[in-house]
Amino acid sequence: MIAGVSGSPGVDEIDAALAVHGLALRGGFNFSGEDAAPPGMLDDPARCVLLVGNAGAAHWPHFHQWRSRQRQDIENPLDTWCREVIGAVGTRFGARAVSPSDKPYLPFQQWAIRAEGLKPSPVGILMHPQYGLWHAYRGALLFDVVLELAEASAPVHLCDDCPDKPCLKACPVRAHSAAGFDYQGCLAHVRSSAGGDCMTGGCLDRNACPHGADYRYPADMQAFHMRAFART
User: Fold this and answer.
1) Is the pLDDT of residue 222 over 70?
2) Residue 33 in domain
3) Where does a domain end: 99, 124, 157?
4) Are strands 96-98 and 119-120 parallel, antiparallel or unpaired?
């Protein structure tokens, strides 16, 4: 069971239902009275949130199989697939499914930090002690009831013991730095003829991180995400 989610009736079943599609529960927590919780299944604020995501590329074959049955010009196919899968699981277990791309945007990164106790890496992606940078949050399930959940422990932040920070040195245009992410500089580079390596093999800074190598996304998956980024 994913750390931070255990001991509740039905939680194991939810995780198993997601695993059929290569997804998994990625922690969760009960909202407090001080939280600005979004609505659950009803109009009242949700009482609990469970994060859903991927670790490595376990979901990738399932997405490809679904993709082969869809028209090829579908917009944002991965978001569409995630909404379909997570939405069906939510309906089955009495939860409202939400997505990181929903507007107005929900605080997914803050939820993830609270749910799994992770901290951002220098490239902005949350550093996981097992998966490194090779994971993502694809949606969340909002419940109208409080669930019995284990408290998330604070894992070792691997970036603290990484003095060389290779993730800040691989990008030819220094898109990531102590000042933050140069979105426009990165976008201009990957759209240019000089950005071919990024477009086919993924972000050079992200790939320079030594952690979680066993979960590194395959090249075609990284290229898929870079093409989507280049279209923004």
Assistant:
1) yes
2) yes
3) 157
4) unpaired
Per-residue confidence (pLDDT) for residue 152, from 0 to 100:
79
Look at residue 2 and tell me if it is in a domain: no
Choose the weakest-confidence range: 7-16, 50-59, 60-69, 180-189: 7-16
**Amino acid type, 111:** W
Q: What is the 3-state secondary structure (H, E, C) of the chain?
A: CCCCCCCCCCHHHHHHHHHCCCCEEEEEEECCCCCCCCECCCCCECCEEEEEEEECCCCHHHHHHHHCCCCCCCCCHHHHHHHHHHHHHHHHHCCEEECCCCCCCCCHHHHHHHHHCCEECCCCCEEECCCECCEEEEEEEEECCCCCCCCCCCCCCHHHHCCCCHHHCCCCCCCEECCEECHHHHHHHHHCHHHHHHHHHCCHHHHHCCCCHHHCCCHHHHHHHHHHHHCC
